[in-house]
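Consider this today:
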Amino acid sequence: MAIVLIKEAKMLTIELINKLCGTVALLGGIYGLLVAYRILPINSGDPERMELWHCKFGKIMKIISPIIIVFGILWLLGIL
């Protein structure tokens, strides 16, 4: 009986960790997309520095962020 309870607790822990990882990936992808499209500022104190960041990383973030969002959704659905 105790072994069954331990196995069930481990399964619940694994499922919870998977849901947490999927949620973090989903929210991180959404945040990256909002930053890439300049909806959310990275550093509102220095607009010149923000412009340099967008020139350097903006294009790649527009490509990678939707992939991370899809990855997070698939992880939450249990496909990955």
Observations:
- The mean pLDDT is 87.
- The radius of gyration is 18 Å.
